[in-house]
Amino acid sequence: MDIPGLLIKTVLLRPYVFLFLAAFLFSAHRLLGWRRTGLFFGITWVTAFVCEFSSTRTGIPFGWYYYTGATLGQELYLWNVPFMDSLSFTFLLYASYCLALFFLLPARNDGSAGGSQGSARVSTPSRLDLVFDPEVRTSWPVLMLGALFFAFIDIVIDPVALRGDRWFLGRIYGYPEPGIHFGVPVANYVGWAVVGLIALAGYFLVDRRLPALGLLAVQPVTGKVLLGCALYYCVLIFTLTVTFWIGEPLLGMTGMLMYLPITALALLRLFGWLPALTYQV
């Protein structure tokens, strides 16, 4: 098998996947550094590939589905799994992680209000300065919310991917029995949440054992976290655009309505109208 040649063909066939991957690497190394970025990528990719390999044979954790092999020879496959498919989990999980961080990281204001140094209070800061607190960034709330956002975006992605024969993805997979959500079984979304939980939990265990991030632990990281959030919304907008383009308005409107409350809360958080835990400095 000509792996280098197939990898080149994969990039040419799926340029959008590798653009999102490049955006992930660019934004993640600014927030996490190259070492943590590489570990995040490796842990997520291995988890996703093993789960896809397992599910196409045992139905665990995504439920039963199959790859058609329609693009064999046009892109790289690892056994029966398209390489680009498991690769997509890496940037989607990182983007979901950043969105969870955006909501849950503590924020620091300029200390204009009363309070002693180091004290914590609830306020609505005029400028959102997120602190990359090591206790928070690997906490249970971030783990759960990150996995939830990860499963949520697949609720938009998977139905349109299932209709890949109507756009440039191609019909690369299917389900033995059509599911209740636009042909996708609910078990698939449960599987995505499971993958998110396993991969993030694995990364958190490693992160806690690595040397401290130095200045990142005290300097505001709002812009770096927002880069990951922007990646999340770029994927979302790309998917919704394809959804409407192939003539699925109900599917597209469903996705838009699902994200309206999340987007509204994110804007409230961004502009300081959502109460947040802040630290006096």
Keywords:
mainly alpha; 8 helices; disordered C terminus
Structure description:
- This protein is mostly helical and 281 residues long.
- It has one domain.
- Helix content is 62%, strand content 6%.
- The chain has 8 helices and 7 strands.
- The chain has helices spanning 3-13, 15-58, 83-104, 134-137, 140-162, 186-209, 222-245, 249-270, and strands at residues 66-67, 77-78, 81-82, 107-108, 120-123, 173-174, 276-279.
- The chain has a 3-stranded mixed sheet with strand order 4-7-5, with no helix packed on it.
- A hairpin with a 2-residue loop joins strand 2 and strand 3.
- Helix 2 crosses helix 3.
- The chain is globular and about 50 Å long.
- The termini are far apart.
- Mean pLDDT is 90; it is low at 110-125 and 277-281.
Mean pLDDT figure: 90
Number of strands: 7
Query: Structural class from helices and strands?
Result: mainly alpha
Strand order of the largest sheet: 4-7-5
Total domains: 1
Weakly predicted, low-confidence segments: 110-125, 277-281
Distance between the termini: 59 Å
Computed CA radius of gyration, to the nearest angstrom: 20 Å
Number of H/I helices: 8
**Strand fraction:** 5-15%
User: Sheet with the most strands?
Assistant: 3 strands, mixed
Shape estimate: globular
Helix content range: 55-70%
- Order of secondary-structure elements: HHEEEHEEHHEHHHE
